[in-house]
Amino acid sequence: MPKDTSRAAAKSPKSLSGLIPFLQPYRGRIALAVVFLVMAATSTLLLPVALKSLIDQGLVAADPGERVMALRQHFGALFAVGAALGLFSALRFYMVTWLGERITADLRDAVYAHVVRQSPEFFETTQTGEVLSRLTTDTTLVQTVVGSSLSMGLRNAVMGAGALLMLVITNPVVMTQVLGILVLVVLPSLYFGRRVRKLSRASQDRVADSSAIAAEVLSEIPVVQSYVQEAREAQRFHESTESAFETARKRTRVRSMLVAFIITATFGALLWGLYQGTQAVLRGDITAGHLGQTVVFVMILVGSVAVLSEVYGDLLRAAGATERLMELLSTRSPVADPPAPQALPAVQGGSAVAFEAVNFHYPSRPGQAALQDFNLQVAPGETVALVGPSGAGKSTVLQLLLRFYDTTSGVVRVDGVPVLQTSLSALRARVGIVPQDSTVFSTSARENIRYGRPDASDAEVEAAARAAFAHDFITALPEGYSTFLGERGVRLSGGQRQRISIARAMLKNPPLLLLDEATSALDAESERMVQAALESAMSGRTTIVIAHRLATVLRADRIVVLDQGRIVDIGRHEELVARGGLYARLAAMQFGAQAS
Question: What are phi and psi of 315, to 5 degrees?
């Protein structure tokens, strides 16, 4: 997602409305929270009324006994109001906190589920660290608003409105003047609010940049340390965090000015009204209890305005976070299921694959063709090897077959069905892949293999491991199949990780197997073991191999030679070497004397 697009979106209004779909399932709980909120606010507003009664009625009885009884009654009423306030405040706190946690969890789930369904094109323009920042920092801001700030804002809005209404009723002339002054407070507040919102969005973008740097560097820490670049990367992260701090400082400065202006202007206006009230007492127009009630209502109103100014700043920050999250959720993958997916036919002995006049350009490199007029038929059970120099288009063939991308033109078929006309799940369920850099997850050896088929039994997992020649080294681990393999499989060697990956593919038991240079990064001993595992995996299924190793190429039924996205030759090893073309030159360079 290009940065300029996200920044432009910061100007869109009513960003928090994007949360409405996440709030709707909990309408009942929200209504209950609002009831408790109103009851807590009402209890607060009853305190000045009870105080007025205490002053005007509890202290006027001439008889000492009557005065004591009156005081007891009024203090009892005050305690009842306080108890109600405590009860309803506790219920409100529980309900809104529950809503905040629940909605944040739903939002994180929705964003994550949406991101993992995006095609690789999405990750060409969006850094993983930026996505992680949105899943953590942005959702935490939303949680703060939904689970705390919004409730405080609504409660104080009710209290402030109630206090203002009571002040207008009890002192209509004076409060009309005060309201006129307060209107003048609103206009500058809107200006400051827009600035805070823009700076909040910019601050969150800077935090995302820092997260992206950290995610990238920490995932490649051996490379960073081997090139002695720790200090440089620390400095780069420092510069990013300083940029985030500077933007946050600007936001905080403007927000502080907003808070100071609102509170000072509001307090000044209300002090004017309070001064007029004291003059009314001196003139005998109102009672002392009336003035006491007015003082408490003024305190409630000023306190409510102060809290609302703080909440307003939180809402502005959450608006920026919500914009970013909604942008992420609104992203649509160019690769999607068709409206009416066509079922793939049942097969035995491997799938048939066909590329018909395929042309393809990567979205990030529209001026450079990755494949040009590519035509290839692979029969069921056949093993086809793709060879060629780097950038020839070998990996692109596999990515189009898995439909990570869609062709620019032409058709890719699996078992006679165009991949565009079947569902992604059905297509990918038919394919197993063993990549060059095998992925091992931070879990046990058993669960890593079971990733190929989550419902597989322990016996089936072990059978797949034996077939991939992985059983012996797994049982030698401290806890056998239950051994935690560490992040990215750091507790295993490269060959062991590769055999885990092969076992995973074999457990899936697909009719079509894709091998993407599965042995190119291994030493001779590991290659021998992995090669044996691959031969076991290839048996009885269609296999497409990207290979630089002679052993795999020699066993292929056909070798397809690519150069600059085009097929330049097809044949068996001996035929291609005899023809003396590109393959013969590659064989001479890569395999030396063995190629001849």
Answer: -65, -40
How distant, in Å, are the alpha carbons of 87, 127, 353, 419 from that of 410? 69, 31, 14, 11
- Listed residue (395, 412, 402) closest to 359, CA to CA: 412
Measured distance CA(498)–CA(533) in Å, rounded: 10
Q: Give the amino acid at 189.
A: S
Query: What is the rounded average pLDDT for all residues in the chain?
Result: 77
pLDDT digits (tens, 9 = 90+) for 371-405: 999 999 999 989 898 988 888 888 899 999 989 88
Handedness of CA 389, 391, 392, 393 (dihedral sign): positive
Q: Which H helix or E strand runs over 143?
A: helix 139-144
How far from 232 is each of 224, 229, 237, 242, 475, CA to CA, in Å?
A: 9, 5, 9, 15, 42
Q: What secondary structure, in 3-state letters, does 276-339 show? A: HHHHHHHHCCCCHHHHHHHHHHHHHHHHHHHHHHHHHHHHHHHHHHHHHHHHHHHCCCCCCCCC
- Domain extent listing, the chain: 3-330, 351-430+511-521+540-596, 437-509
Could you give the CA distance from residue 465 to residue 196 in angstroms, rounded to a whole number?
A: 58
Question: Rounded to whole angstroms, what are the CA distances from 297 to 45, 138, 200, 571?
Answer: 8, 37, 34, 91
Count Cβ atoms below 10 Å from residue 222 Cβ, excluding itself.
8
What is the three-class DSSP state of 560? strand
Mutual angle of helices 288-330 and 230-283, in 10-degree steps: 150
Has domain 351-430+511-521+540-596 been given CATH number 3.40.50.300?
A: yes
Residues 419, 424, 425, 431: what is their CA dihedral angle, to the nearest 10 degrees?
50
Of the candidates 545, 510, 508, the one whose C-alpha atom is nearest the C-alpha of residue 344 is 510
Instruction: Enter the tokens of residue 298.
Output: 């003024």
- Does CATH number 1.20.1560.10 belong to domain 3-330? yes
Coil, strand, or helix at residue 556?
coil
Burial-class residue 448 by CB neighbours within 10 Å (0-12, 13-18, 19+): buried
Amino acid at 475: T
Distance of CA 238 to the CA centre of its chain: 24
Instruction: Please state, in angstroms and rounded to a whole number, the distance separating the CA atoms of residues 283 and 290.
Output: 13
pLDDT tens-digit readout, 87-129: 888 888 888 888 888 888 888 888 888 888 888 777 777 777 6
Domains 3-330 and 351-430+511-521+540-596 share a fold: no
SS (H, E, C) 180-225: HHHHHHHHHHHHHHHHHHHHHHHHHHHHHHHHHHHHHHHHCHHHHH
pLDDT tens, 481-507? 888 887 766 677 777 888 888 888 888
DSSP state at residue 341? P
